[in-house]
Amino acid sequence: MKKRIFGRIIIGMVLLCLLGIAFTGYAAPVAQSINLITNPAGMGMYTIAVAQSQLISRKAGLQIIVQPSQGPKVIPFILESGDGQVGTLSSNNTFWAYKGIGEYNKPYKFIRVLQAGNENYFAIITKEKSGIKTIPDLKGKRVTYSVTSFLSQSIMEKELRAYGLNPIKDIIPLKSEDNTTSLRDLDQGRTDAAICGLGGSKMAELSTKTKIVALPFDPSKIALLQKEMVVFPAITPNNLSGIDPGLKVVSTPNLLISRADLSMDVVYLMVKTLIENYNELKAVNPVLADWTQEAAVRELPVPYHPGAIKYYKEKGLWNSKMDQLQQQFLGK
Fold first, then answer.
1. Domain end point (choices 252, 269, 284)
2. In whole angstroms, what is the distance from residue 193 CA to residue 201 CA?
3. Is 70 exceeded by the pLDDT of residue 16?
4. Residue 191 three-state SS
5. By the 8 A CB rule, do 291 and 274 touch?
6. Mean pLDDT, range 251-269, rounded to an integer
7. Measured between alpha carbons, how far is residue 271 from residues 14, 154, 206, 298 in Å?
């Protein structure tokens, strides 16, 4: 009797495995819970992470749990601790963390890229009624930055210097706990301007109360920023909540990253699910329309995960130059 029951269990497990292959085109890994670490709730990256996790959980049978954090500074630390396995981070912060520079006091060499996606747009913002229209107009004004986003702070300081302003002497720098707090301070009149990533529900909420202005940055000055960061000149698209399109700002591509020791099968399945369900994903959030397979593979200063590489090679998205970069990063 026991042998008969055991035999039925084995048959059932085989059938479940075959069903997994039939529905996904790939043998599903053992069910597990994966923590995806991202920015505070209400910010653009958090919204992206939620949409991606829900799609993967529904389509791939993996339980992806989104865990908001204080911001980019702590995400690599949480991944290193093992409390998170996957994260969302800008390419600039990923590069800093991988190298152990900028706001990171040691290198996090375990970081691997799964997929590159939309551009993360940055600008110093203010209320239209403040009368501040350009970066030079900030002289003598209160400007808030998040202590948990060294990227935002660095962009602010370098944009000010590009226009001849000293970020310590020529403005009144104010600190906030995170970008959400910066927006609240701007809303409540505790600051005149704030530097943060553009878009997200909190910025959309603020725009219903007052007209938000993103101060333009001259693209001819971008070289001053690129000496120390991975940023590019950009034009705001028409899908950033509360921000007018067509404004000259700066951007850095957002990434989906993971620990290097995350299962190759799991990473393959995650990337496959995101790419092959792109049409469903972009319908959830307009920002996710930029997470295309064409944008997934980029020449970044950080290595990709082998599970992601396997999928990209199958799709013809990975070339010999990317192989050379990968080998260079890994010292092969």
1. 252
2. 18
3. no
4. coil
5. yes
6. 95
7. 25, 31, 34, 15
